[in-house]
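Researcher: Next sequence.
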Amino acid sequence: MTTEELEENIEMGELEMEGTIDYLQNELKKVRAGKASPSMLSSIMVDYYGSPTPQKQVTNLSASQGRNHSIQPWEKYMISPIEKAIMTANLGLNPQNNGDIIIINIPALTEERRRGLVRQAKQLGEDAKVSLRSARHKMMDSVKKAVKNGYPEDAGKRQEEEVQKMTDNFGSKVSSLVEQKEKDIMTV
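Model: Next structure:
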């Protein structure tokens, strides 16, 4: 393995770790914290003329008064497919329509439900850390393979230290994101 290949593998590992952080941030947005947030509904796909379409491409969505979502379809006949999509998304939300807009009331979270959401957020964080360790393992293997093929041993040790430092930095980002979400969930 050449020096360029090693650097490329480490760069790919870093990109994988950054992707893990991005994925975690998106998944944590979906864990509701008892407040209305447009990101809660970002993953909903609506049947639009026979093709699944993200709801944000067929509606205007607003979160009002902290506990309500108002969904204004661009086309009036889309109210029923949007309601159906929300129900099948299994988010625990019950849409109501008045013929023009869909209103979703976000119920207040019980203490037990808050703790369940915290567990869910922590599990997402743990999954992210597993992904980081996997990327770290691949990078370390690349370094060891390079040393075995003639790369200087002391330079290999420095690379391993850099990879470990990178992993620790990304791990602390994961912990920080999960702690912030936990604080968000537990705030009444």
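Model: The longest strand covers residues 59-64. The chain has four helices and six strands.
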